[in-house]
Amino acid sequence: MTDNKIHIFDTTLRDGEQVPGCKLNTKEKVELALKLEELGVDIIEAGFPISSPGDFTSVNEISKIIKNASVCGLTRAVQKDIEVAAEALKYAVRPRIHTGIGTSDLHIKAKFNSTREDILRRAIQCVKWAKNFVDDVEFYAEDAGRTGNEYLARVVEAVIKAGATVVNIPDTTGYCLPHQYGEKIAYLVNNVPNIDKAIISCHCHNDLGLATANSIAGIINGARQIECTINGLGERAGNTSLEEVVMIIKQHKDMGFYTNINAKQLNPLSQLVAETMRMPVQCNKAIVGSNAFSHSSGIHQDGFLKDALTYEIINPAEVGAEESKIVLTARSGRSALAHRFQKLGYQFDRNDIDVLYQEFLLIADGKKEVMKEDLESLAKAHTKELAV
Ligand code: KIV
Ligand code: ZN
Predict the structure, then answer these.
(1) What is 7-276's CATH number, 3.40.50.80, 3.10.20.30, 3.20.20.70, 3.40.50.150?
(2) pLDDT tens, residue by residue, 187-202
(3) 282-to-209, 285, 290, 327, 345 alpha-carbon distances in Å
(4) Burial class for 292, CB neighbours closer than 10 Å (0-12, 13-18, 19+)
(5) d(CA 300, CA 295)
(6) Domain ranges of the chain
(7) Which of 9, 140, 168, 181 most suits a substitution to test ligand 1, by most atoms within 8 Å of the C-beta?
(8) Closest ligand 1 atom to the C-alpha of 227?
(9) Tell me: the pLDDT tens digits for 172-185?
């Protein structure tokens, strides 16, 4: 594996949009697609064209305006789905059809009441059908996370032979541990004779909170595409979060990977997605949560004020976030209090701060956060006392 570029396949507009309450209309999807292209994603999964006339139109409109990224449409391993996706993608500069079928024994029996041999045949057939319309065909082996490696390797080899350019290995239920997912990718790299003819893709769900860790294990073991969403949105507990994988790759340069993402746009786009999808971001979310660059305990605040690197591995400006915050709570210390007074234009000496700190603690014990207004009244009262 020589090229260490990690292709970022964004599925905010497809898997992300499947979240109840996150449905987007065409105008919203087009606006977000343009922002995703500006962010630098390599592939935009724009929707599932056969699922509704609205989604067909969204994929169609996105295909017309996106010039640099590939535009992808999802299908089942069904001829009609593929034809409709091809039609929706007909204006795309770089169209991709994403087709596939469940490969775990559970999916084969419970969903399709079928056999491994029949599923293998349908997998080959859908890729061949999609190849009639586009060159770039991605095959997904749904529930690959719970599919036996030997059978998965047979499927992967066969679909590559049929023309798949990308093979997606989804951990659909978020079941795998990172070492298991990594081993699965390594197994394919080592046991599929024509694997060099396709890119391996990781599509991990977050049911056990392992989506990001699993995707990273995937690329360490040979995958070169990660499927992810802004804010980690997606079915159930969500998908791998785009901002997390991008910043892991950026922070850990020693792994030797890179992406084309302009990290400065991560926070603005996260906010836009949260507003457009009406789905707030949890405050402690890595990279884009409102607390991601807030410091509230005295020990941390003191260290941070001496050297930000003591408690921050990312400069907020690097990911387009507001500057770091020193939040005052009953766990805060004197340095933080002095710093906040200074920011408000008050210069107090050590003795003043000692006195003010005791008064501050009384307020802080009574509320969650001591606000600017509380500090103003504390400072004014203290200044008055000094003048008497
Ligand atoms: O989670 C999954 O398996 C999917 C496929 C349709 C790629 O979303
Ligand atoms: Zn998914």
Answers:
(1) 3.20.20.70
(2) 999 999 999 999 999 9
(3) 14, 5, 8, 17, 33
(4) buried
(5) 6
(6) 7-276, 294-387
(7) 140
(8) 7
(9) 999 999 999 999 99
